[in-house]
Automatic annotation (TrEMBL), chain A:
GO terms for cellular component: cytoplasm; Lsm2-8 complex; spliceosomal complex; U4/U6 x U5 tri-snRNP complex; U6 snRNP. PROSITE patterns: SM. Keywords: mRNA processing, mRNA splicing, Nucleus, Ribonucleoprotein, RNA-binding, Spliceosome. PANTHER family: U6 SNRNA-ASSOCIATED SM-LIKE PROTEIN LSM3 (PTHR13110). GO terms for biological process: mRNA splicing, via spliceosome. Belongs to the snRNP Sm proteins family. This is U6 snRNA-associated Sm-like protein LSm3. It comes from Caenorhabditis angaria. Binds specifically to the 3'-terminal U-tract of U6 snRNA. SMART domains: Sm (SM00651). The keyword Ribonucleoprotein applies. LSm subunits form a heteromer with a doughnut shape.
UniProtKB/TrEMBL annotation, chain B:
Transmembrane segments: none annotated. It comes from Caenorhabditis angaria. Its main location: nucleus. It comes from the Eukaryota. One of its GO terms (biological process) is mRNA splicing, via spliceosome. This is Sm domain-containing protein.
Length: 103, 85
């Protein structure tokens, strides 16, 4: 019985499917790229197979593109906002990047 | 099921739902289903002028829909669909 918890730890550390990467990123800060030019950075609290996620202490960066009428120059504007706790519906997620680990 | 339970635990709390068309709706979470459809009560919109469709739909829903007829038609359709099976 004493070996039971140890075995579980070993199992939890294995990567067998893509979403295991997210499992290992739980309670870490992740970077999420979203459709409609949005990015999120926040602590991953929960996720499911649809990539629905709950993030906390989130910084959201919205990039808007405008074209200057005279020069046709494209201007990118970034607006930031912070959200304490956020549920993200998975269908708007493009990619999730785990935290950079100092190894 | 995880997020269904998560939202069930939030029933009665004040939430903000941001829709895909950028409309943000603040309200009290009344109920949620397995698809994460949500019903909010006592809603308000932070910037109603920005999205005229909201003001329009509110007026539409309040004044112009015969809800009784709508419900009866819905029952009729369901009954017809069932009869076809």
């Amino acid at each position: 019985m004493a070996e039971q918890p140890k075995k579980e730890v070993v199992l939890n550390a294995t990567i067998e499917e893509p979403l295991d990467l997210l499992r290992l990123s739980l309670e870490e800060r992740v970077h999420v790229k979203m459709r409609t030019d949005r990015e999120l950075r926040g602590k991953l609290r929960a996720f499911d197979q649809h990539l629905n996620m709950v993030l906390s202490e989130v910084e959201e960066i919205v990039t808007t593109r405008e074209t200057d009428e005279d020069t046709f120059e494209e201007i990118y504007r970034q607006t930031k906002r912070t959200v304490p706790m956020l549920f993200v519906r998975g269908d708007s997620v493009i990619l999730v990047s785990p935290p950079v680990r100092a190894s | 099921m995880l997020f269904f339970s998560f939202f069930k635990s939030l029933v009665g709390k004040d939430v903000v739902v941001e829709l895909k068309n950028d409309l943000s709706i603040c309200g009290t979470l009344h109920s949620v289903d397995q698809y994460l459809n949500m019903k909010l009560i006592d809603i308000s919109v932070s910037d109603p002028e920005k999205i005229p469709t909201y003001a329009f739909s509110q007026k539409l829903f309040r004044d112009q829909v015969d809800t009784q007829l709508l419900a009866d038609s819905c029952r009729k359709e369901l009954a017809e669909a069932k009869a076809k099976q």
